[in-house]
Amino acid sequence: MRLLSPVDSVLHAAVHLFFDSDFDGRFRELVDLHELLTAFGGVSGFWDALIARAKMQGLGRPLYYTFVALTRVLRTPVPAAALAASRAFAPPPLTDRWMTNTLETVLTPVDPQIWPPANRARLWLLFVRSHWLRMPAHLLVPHLVRKSMRRVRVDPLAAPR
């Protein structure tokens, strides 16, 4: 049996959390990341290796968002040196502020109710962002228009088939 290394396990979970388009149920994934960092964080050299591997793989931004979300939502203890090093992967200040606030909002559990109306716009923007990361604009715009039209045509009161 082959397993990902501890560093790659964290990066793999971070990519899934921050690149997927659906943020429903993501609190569980955030807890998984908390547990991974808590379990591996005491291993000598782990934090330096995590930062280095994220840089090597081009995954610094999701690691930065992981640290931001974990420290704000779950108060996960991340060493100051690792937090400082992850700042090199941060987006521009305006984007950083918006994403930080948005992640804290949408990753905090709201069970058992549906997403509060204030969160729906943020969730939609995260949905668009996730597609933007994977699709060029000339394909993204028609794709999102088709999805929106499909959603409008579906009668939410109709019985499922």
Please give a structural write-up.
The chain is mostly helical and 161 residues long. It has one domain. The longest helix is centred in the C-terminal third of the chain and has 18 residues. The protein is globular, with a radius of gyration of 18 Å.
Top keywords for this entry?
mainly alpha; 70% helix
Can you describe this structure in just a few lines?
With 161 residues, the chain is mainly alpha-helical.
Distance N to C terminus = 42 Å
Strand fraction equals under 5%
Task: Please count the helical segments.
Answer: 8
Radius of gyration: 18 Å
Helix content: over 70%
In terms of topology, how is this protein built?
Elements: H1 6-19, H2 26-40, H3 46-57, H4 60-74, H5 80-86, H6 93-107, H7 117-134, H8 137-153
Helix pairs in contact: 1-2, 1-3, 1-4, 2-4, 4-6
